[in-house]
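Sat 14:20. Reprocessing the chain from the morning session after the first attempt stalled halfway. Input below, unchanged.
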Amino acid sequence: MDLSLTHIWIIVAALTLIIELVSVSLLFIFFTIGAVVTAILTSLGLTESFNMQLLSFSIVSVLSLLVARQPLKAWLKRNKGGTEYSEYLGDQATVINDIPAQGEGRVFYRGTEWIALSASGTLIEKGKSVIIKELDGIKLIVVEI
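Finished this time. Tokens:
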């Protein structure tokens, strides 16, 4: 079976899409875009040489990354909606290691230690009670009561 360059770019697009879906990094999707655009340009005969295809792939990938990544991340964060962890919001936890103003501490919540950050940007001392305001991955963002 002979693969054309268009087919190879479609395979590259599929592989980078799979990597994006597994990693959820919002990075490889831009390589997927570059590969799809390059496949289209190649199928239309606009990029005949492999060097032109690599240039097309690189330019489209980098431009889409620079232009769209931050707005897309902000949009996804805004439109995340309720998560399965929204039940944690508003609950109380106890600080077991000081939470520095600009650093990480630890809280005890539901029988487990969690990494915690201060939402107000102020020191929260060990033993204080806090309210969970939001989650950032596996970190709790808290405010002192």
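Strands lie at 92-97, 104-109, 112-118, 129-136, 139-144.
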